[in-house]
Amino acid sequence: MEFRHLGRSGLVISEIAYGNWLTHGSQVEEDAAIACVHAALDAGITTFDTADVYAATRAEAVLGRALSGQRREGLEIFTKVYWPTGPGKNDTGLSRKHIMESINGSLKRLQTDYVDLYQAHRYDTATPLEETMVAFADIVHSGKAHYIGVSEWSAEQIRAAHELATELRVPLVSSQPQYSALWRVIEAEVVPTCEELGIGQIVWSPIAQGVLTGKYLPGQQPPAGSRATDDKGGANMISRWMRDDVLERVQRLQPLAAEAGLTLAQLSVAWVLQNSNVSAAIIGASRPEQVTENVKAAGVKLDAGLLKAMDEILAPVAEFDPAKTAENSPKGRVN
């Protein structure tokens, strides 16, 4: 495993992080989920990312049990707040009430006294940013989190939050966007802003929900049991890429991966890590062997010719529009 600083902070994290969105507490039985976490630990992963909303809070609880008994100081545990976690009108968003109540619930489920990074899972248009940032600052100053971050915020929103964080003397160090060789919307605005401000990217879906593994073939039905057949949310997330023109171009990457001595999944994870503003790529897994394979992307250096060839193949079907960040954020508070 290789390690990187999270932005310009002093926090060092594994450049491959393990995330349990769409798996723990829902798609994967707990024994298998715990086996995946232990495979991640065996592979040298020290950074674990989750959120209170994943599997309606169950994912945090599973991760807490999976990490029980590990040396806490040797781990970096990240979680998030925003999406609804209960039926009440204040069980959602980034109000002070919801943030303060949510951090306590997350810590209890994760079986820890603090998280290393507490992230705003989306931007809340219904709450003043000042209210949100003061609440986050109070959580850091109370010792319940060491750092704060955001997820799927625009460059403008990140800049405004960073200004307040500086005034409040709280370290806003990370952005967690979707990023892959097919989804490149952060490159034009978010990445330059974060480079200026010293904020690192912790990217999710580096293999585009599995499309960049090459297992989905043009003109053929998805393999049984794959994410594209999952009716609990996976199929909906992957649907944008399940087009023959995309799948055909992904298959054209296979010779490039073979030339580099990598699987297509490893190549795809390594591709996001070539961006110097990326501090970590989050991988997920439903089987331990997926973890073991994907961590082999750590430390890989891809040459300029290979990167150019990948760009030429995927550019016609990749998404670059920075306005697409807004697609991952609700227009108003979700109840």
TrEMBL record:
Belongs to the shaker potassium channel beta subunit family. GO terms for cellular component: cytosol. The lineage of its organism: Bacteria, Bacillati, Actinomycetota, Actinomycetes, Kitasatosporales. Gene3D superfamilies: NADP-dependent oxidoreductase domain. SUPFAM superfamilies: NAD(P)-linked oxidoreductase. This is Aldo/keto reductase. Keywords: NADP, Oxidoreductase. It comes from the Bacteria. CDD domains: Aldo_ket_red_shaker-like.
